Amino acid sequence: MGLDFIFILKAIIIAVVEGVTEFLPISSTGHMILVGKLIGFYDTPFVKMFQIVIQLGAISAIVVLYWDKIWTMIKLFFKMDKKGLRFWLAIIVATLPAVVFGFLLEDLIEEKLFGFETVIIGLIVGGILLVVVENNFRKKAKTDRTTKEVEEMSYRQALLIGLFQCLAMWPGMSRSSSTIMGGWIAGLSTTVAAEFSFFLGIPIMIGASTLKLAKFDYSSMTSTYWIALLVGFIVSFIVALVVVDGFVSFLKKKPMRVFAVYRIFVGILLSIMILTNVIK
Which of 3, 57, 79, 94 is deepest in the core (most CB within 10 A)? Predict the structure, then answer.
C-alpha cells in the first residue's frame, strides 16, 4: 500500500497547531480536537496516540531551550544542594495531583470531555477564568514578596499549581493557562509561573506519552502512520522552539487577556456555527 500524502499533510497541520498552542494559554488539546474534526483527522486510536506524541515533541523544545537551567539543577540535586533539591521536589509535588486524578479519572475524562461541544465550553469558561484571575492576582504577583526564581518556590506553592494543572484535564481549559493562573494565585511572578509551567510539562508529557505508547496496538501501524508520527514530532518540536521564546517575551510586557478574548470569541463563533448547522 502506498503512502497517503493527504493523511500526512493533515498530520503536519495538527503538528503545527500543537507547536503553536502547547505553551499559549489557549489549549493545545482543544485546538487539536477542533481542527482535527474540521479537517477529518479526529477520534481514532492512532490520532489519539499521535496527539500525545506530538505534545512530547513540543515539550522537547523546552528541554532544548532551558537545557542549561535543567542541567544545572540536575547537578545541584545530586550534590544535595538546597536549590537543586527544592527545584525537583517542587516539580514532583506539583505533578502528583495530575498523576492521581489522571489515573483515577482517565477513562471518564476521555469518554465525557473529549468532544467538540465540551471543548468549546472549556475555551469559554477558561477564557473567563483567565480574565478574572489575572485582574485579581497578577498585580499582586509584582510585589517584593513575589517568588522570582523557580528554585525559590515553596512546596505549598507547587501543590497549588499542581491542583490548578488538573483543570487542564478538561480539553479546552489549557495546561499553560491553568498552571500560570495557579502561579499567580500562589504568588509567583508571571515569568516564573510560565517557566514552572514549562518545566512541569516535561514529566507530565513523558508520563502520558509512555502510557499511550504502551497501550497502543502497533499491529495497526502502516508506513503512512509511521511517517506521520515522525514528521509530526519534528514539526511540533520546531514550531514550539519558535513560539516559546516569543511567548515569554510577550508575558514580560503584555497582559494575557488577549488570549482570553480569543478563546471566548472562538468559543462563541463555534457555538453559533453548531447551532446554525454550519458544523455538524
Answer: 94
DSSP the chain: ----HHHHHHHHHHHHHHHHHTTTTT-HHHHHHHHHHHHT--SSHHHHHHHHHHHHHHHHHHHHHTHHHHHHHHHHHHTT-HHHHHHHHHHHHHHHHHHHHHHHHHHHHHHHHSSHHHHHHHHHHHHHHHHHHIIIIIGGGGSTTSB-SGGG--HHHHHHHHHHHGGGGSTTS-HHHHHHHHHHHHTB-HHHHHHHHHHHHHHHHHHHHHHHHHHS-GGG--HHHHHHHHHHHHHHHHHHHHHHHHHHHHHHHS-THHHHHHHHHHHHHHHHHHHTTS--
For residue range 70-96, list pLDDT tens digits in order: 999 999 999 999 999 999 999 999 999
Quote the CA–CA distance of 25 and 183 in Å, as a whole number: 13
Residue 216: count of CB within 10 angstroms of its CB: 17
Poorest-pLDDT segment among 47-51, 100-104, 118-122, 137-141: 137-141
| pLDDT grade for 253, boundaries at 50, 70 and 90 | confident
- Find out whether 240 and 58 touch, Cβ atoms under 8 Å: yes
Query: What would the mean pLDDT of 114-137 be, rounded to a whole number?
Result: 92
Residue 188 phi/psi, 5° resolution?
A: -95, 150
Cell numbers for 78, please give them: 545530586
Whole-model pTM: value is 0.89
